[in-house]
Every structure is written in structure tokens, then in C-alpha cells.
Write a structure and sequence with these properties.
By secondary structure, the chain is of the alpha/beta class. The protein is built from nine helices and eleven strands. The chain has one domain: P-loop containing nucleotide triphosphate hydrolases (Rossmann fold), CATH 3.40.50. The strands form two sheets. The chain has a nine-stranded mixed beta sheet, sandwiched between helices. Strands 1-2 form a two-stranded antiparallel sheet. About 5% of the residues have low confidence. Keywords: ATP-binding, Nucleotide-binding.
Length: about 250
């Protein structure tokens, strides 16, 4: 039975991810997805985004790594065809270009206050679900945040952003943040861990010659059905995300 308060991640015929996560992501929540480079944050985000769009939700995906071409190619390789949702404006894709005087620089190349500009970009917050992948890269490239870090005021900077996110989710929207914890100070990420309604930790584990990936569900407020503590998964070209096993710690 569908829960009104949950945004379904869909694809029930293809994988068990939606079922493992209790039937979807609660509306009005901040989702923190944390994991080192290669742990699968982008792939899981892309799977979330594709399933959400298939279920009728509108999605904004901001990537600090992929261009729109790269995004389409990557989604295609996972058999998540995003061309139609992009053309029909069910999905808004934005590339945060830090290096080449792109989206977040002035004509003279001067870096702007990224976080402020993000907050002011109204169009991107109109969607039901907004992904910031990777959020720590936005942090690290924001000169205002850098200045606060130099004064050991990471927490203050984080709290200002959090109050903005709270305003967004009060409208029933979902904000998904992906973070590489090795790239940002614990002081900066701590407040986001504390306030996340859903906290997923992705990790890679070497088992013999195999590398296994898993989602550790640290927190899941407002869950539907029972949510697994640990969800094993793999990322397969031509298939997408495959749920490997379920074990409850």
C-alpha cells in the first residue's frame, strides 16, 4: 500500500531498492549520502533520480563532476534513459563548473559566493527533489565558506545553509546531499549529519578479490515499512543498480 508521505523510488520490477528503503523517501526530508570516492554515491543518486521521475516526481540534479553530456552517457550505460525526462523538463540537470569560469564565476573569472548563488537560483528549488552531488565540492569552492573555515567557524557556515534547507523542506520537498567525508573537515560535516532525516553511509568492502558495496542506513526518520540496516548493492553496466543481499546487523 503506498504511503502518501513517501516519494517512491519506483523500479519495483527491476531492483529491490525501493522495498529495502521501506517504500520511498519521506517528503520534507534532508537526505545525507556519505561515502568515499568510488563508493557509489553518484550511481545511487542517479538511480534515485531515475526512479523518482518514473514515479511522477520532478527532480533537479546538480553535479560538480558531470556535464549534461556525461550525465546522459552515464545514465544510458546504467539503462536509466534520461533523455525524455530532460526534454519534458521533468528533470533539470545543472553542471557546477568551478574550473573554467563557468556557471559560478563572473566574466573576469572571480569566484562568487557559490552557496548564496545556489540559494538564489529559484528555478532549481522548484522540483520535488533536489540533488547536490557532490555537496562537499560546493563547500570547498565557496570563498565565503573558506574564509569561515580559516577562522574555525565551519559550524556557523553550515548552520546558515541548514536554515535555508529547512525552509525548502518545509514545503514538502526533499534535498539530497552527497558528501565525500575524506574531502571535508568533520566540523563542517557534523551539523549535516546531526540534522539529516535520512543518513545513508555508502562503503566499499574488500572481500578476497571482490569489492562489495553497501549502504549502511544510519538514520531513517519517517520510514514506511521496515528499512534494512545494511543493503548490499552493485553497479552494473547495462543493468544499473542491483541489490545483492540483505542482512540486518
Amino acid at each position: 500500500m503506498p504511503h502518501d508521505n513517501l516519494l517512491s523510488l519506483g523500479l519495483g520490477e527491476r531492483d529491490r531498492l525501493n522495498k529495502e528503503l521501506g517504500g520511498g523517501i519521506p517528503r520534507g526530508s534532508i537526505v545525507l549520502m556519505e561515502g568515499d570516492y568510488g563508493a557509489g554515491k553518484s550511481a545511487i543518486s542517479q538511480r534515485f533520480a531515475y526512479g523518482l521521475v518514473q514515479e511522477g516526481a520532478s527532480v533537479t540534479m546538480m553535479s560538480t563532476e558531470l556535464t549534461v553530456r556525461g550525465f546522459i552517457d552515464q545514465m544510458h550505460s546504467l539503462e536509466y534513459d534520461m533523455v525524455k525526462p530532460l526534454l519534458q523538463e521533468e528533470l533539470l540537470f545543472l553542471h557546477a563548473d568551478f574550473d573554467s569560469g563557468g556557471a559560478f564565476s563572473d566574466d573576469d573569472g572571480e569566484r562568487k559566493e557559490l552557496l548564496k548563488r545556489l540559494m538564489d537560483a529559484e528555478a532549481m528549488w522548484n522540483s520535488d527533489v533536489v540533488f547536490l552531488d557532490t555537496f562537499d565540492a560546493i563547500f570547498r569552492n565557496d570563498p565565503t565558506f573558506e574564509a569561515l573555515v580559516r577562522k574555525n567557524e565551519e559550524r556557523q557556515a553550515a548552520l546558515e545553509i541548514i536554515s535555508f534547507f529547512r525552509e525548502i523542506i518545509s514545503q514538502g520537498k526533499v534535498v539530497v546531499l552527497t558528501v565525500d567525508p575524506s574531502a571535508v573537515d568533520d566540523e563542517a560535516i557534523g551539523p549535516f549529519r546531526s540534522i539529516a532525516d535520512v543518513f545513508l553511509e555508502l562503503e566499499m568492502i574488500e572481500v578476497g578479490n571482490d569489492i562489495r558495496r553497501q549502504i549502511n542506513v544510519k538514520r531513517f526518520a519517517g520510514m514506511g515499512e521496515q528499512v534494512g540496516d545494511t543493503i548490499g548493492f552493485s553497479v552494473r553496466s547495462g543493468t544499473g543498480i542491483v541489490i545483492e543481499s540483505r542482512s540486518v546487523a
